Amino acid sequence: MEFTRKKKKNSAFDIAVTVISLVLVAAVLYPLILVVSSSISDPVAAASGEVLLLPKGFTLEGYKRVFQDEHIMMGYANSLFYTIVGTLINLLVTIPAGYVMTKTEVPGTKFIMKLFLFTMYFSGGMVPAFLLMNSLGLYNTRWVLLILGAFSVYNCIICRSFFLGLPKELEEAAYIDGSSYIKTFMTIILPLSKALLGVMVLYFAVAHWNSYFNAMIYTYDANIQPLQLFLRRILILEKTSAEMMEAGGDEYAAQQQQVAALIKYAVIVVSSLPLMIIYPFLQKFFEKGVMIGSVKG
Amino acid sequence: MRKKLLSALLATAMVVSVCACGNTEPANGSESETKQSEVESSVSTSQSTEVVEENDSLYPLVDEPITVTGVVIGEKEYKDIIVWDKVAEITGVNFEWITVDKEAINTFLSADWEFDFIHTRTLADTIVNDYGVLGGRFADYNDYLELMPNLQKTIEEYPEAKKAMTEINGEMYSLPYIEASATATQVRAYYRTDLLEKYDIPVPKTTEEFYEALKTYKEKNGTAGFSGASLRETQYWGPMLYAAFGTSVQPDFEDDGTGTVVYNRTSEQYKLYLEFMNRLYKEELIQQEYMTNDINVAIGLARSGDTVFYADEAHSLMPEDFADGEMHLSVMAPLTSEYSDDQEVLRQLIVSKGGMYLNAESENLEALVQALDIMYATEEVVEGSGLHGMSFCYGIEGVDYIKNDDGTYELVTPEGFDSFTAYQYGTLIVNNAGRATDLEGYITSTPGNAQARQIGFRDNIFPYACDASKVFPASFIKFTTDEQDVITTRYTDIQKHVTEMRDKFITGIVDIETGWDEYCKAIETMGIDEVLEVYQAAYDRWNQ
Fold this sequence. Notes:
The complex is a heterodimer of chains A (about 300) and B (about 550). By secondary structure, chain A is an all-alpha fold. Chain A has 15 helices and no strands. Chain A is about 75% helix and about 0% strand. Chain B has three domains: about 35-180 and about 355-425, D-Maltodextrin-Binding Protein, domain 2 (3-Layer(aba) Sandwich); about 190-250 and about 260-350 and about 445-470, D-Maltodextrin-Binding Protein, domain 2; about 480-544. In chain B, the strands form five sheets. Chain B has a four-stranded mixed beta sheet. A three-stranded mixed beta sheet of chain B has the order 10-4-14. In chain B, α12 runs parallel beside α18 (about 480-505). The interface between A and B is large, with 57 and 57 residues.
């Protein structure tokens, strides 16, 4: 009897969870399907709200324009470069820092940790950052997009929490055998930290891929700008018709708006595709590692 | 293992496709190199070299070729621009271009200035003030006028051009852009003639007839015929409908005829205009989402025939959007009303800001200003080159545009480009600049959207445009720093309040009858009198 009652409770709960999950899936999936449908629909139909789920007025003109545009393909290559190299740099500075922060016997680590924490809440702002980058000669170079923001305090704390959870006995055994800190870190700690590395790669890679603001402020050479900046320009093109009229007249404004309407959905799909392809392969690590930073300090 | 292999293959495929698939020729420029060589062959290098030798007192401007860097604020990248390459060929001054995003221009200017000039016409007044008037980093064109005879001649013909470009300190940091063409108007009340004919609706001549036309359209077509997509008061329908209710043509600041600056947003005429718009909105004769519809929605409504009276969405209507494949677009003449039988509307001044802000520390200023002077030439600077002021808007005469004897002109679109505009901006020129007055009174000979609109402007707007002296030069008058503070602290909030209340009055959220006095009082409390004093002082200086 008790067993039967327990089962009923569970199935009601299960139904509720299933329904909520389905609603959430629909809420997330619908915009994705809509963007893909709009990208292969007639742009005027898409903008008029006639495309609700399935495409209307099938056309691949948007994709054709995207792949013919040298700036978009160049932006794509730049985004891939910044994502790969930037993520490597992020890992190189953040993971070891997180490990060092676990070594409280090293003098100064507590003080340094407090300094790191301070920067999480207070910063110099955009103007000092710009003046610094400019004085270092990094303005309008690729390095400014790789070095600025390379060290993430938040992620360093996550790493530290993870490393604190590893058994100390492993390290002690390594030290007894004559291993140095660095060798211990490389040969024992890192191999045990695959879940952490997976999560960090995901966080950093997504941040790099989506970033456009630093590129907009610190670069003006189109050859080094990432894809998201071109996407942003296209998406705001429709809203600058008044300025375009002043610069080039009504036909120029109309022509720019038509181009923007035609390619904006295609650019969104093209720019989102790489991460959507890569994520399933990192799913395993993300699942294991997403809670690793849940208890800090 | 399989998954790793698959992910590696996918990653490789992405990188390879990015490297290999990027077509280096843009969609609208696949023939640009061919076009450029055609231009060069039609005006051969040897010919221009011979002519240069004849005019060797003027061109080339330098003994050894130099390169100057121009900054463009925008989204596109500019390379091998035909007209500027032609300038380089004649003068020896080569041009290379940097594009800076609008959001990033402030940080760009705070870094080291490694450019020679800023091409952009829409540089913010605050930047001009900070770096020019206060910072002294822009060169003063007055110091180089002797080297610019074409500009001097233009200023003599259009004295308001120099006045408009002169800053509060008496210096001139930008050049004027002078355009007289068949589309030089801000008042644009477009409509589809086929839809009015379909329902036997006469073209309205009064506000009441306009109301009746919309009412009939709603009854017969079932939709709100007035898109209202761009109900801005300085362009399209706003200035026209406002002008129908009185003798004023500008709803903001205006000279009342005695030299006194008035603010019309609290005037009886403006109230009558809002009441009329509210009536249209209340009876659902205007698209109810007009404030939030974006341009593509408006285009869709125009193409489908849901709307019949348009703003800028009309620019996108093509012959193929009409049942018989022909353009049925026209422009409505100004309306009259029971309050005014005067059909006068706001005129667009032919002078506007032309950009070309010079870096005062550039080493190439003398050669650069002489090269820029070509933008104001009324005849080709070198015989056979086809290069003169018009080129900086329409390209080379005889190649890119042809003037016919019958009062028409033709724009030549090269192969590989969807339209002349696609060719014009980014391949032929950067943006409109200089003096483009040759096509005044000319209509394009190519049937289509542009021709329909130009005929409409010529027949129904230009004859009613007010005298240029009646246009309040709001964008040209200059303010002192203290005056600018008043505008920043007072007028910005007043503008926001006016815009908000305009929409509330039109949509009926606030009743005009009961809310008008409170609205006027609010504007007074916000300091409109102080703002008027500032504008009066600036206007008095302008008139001196």
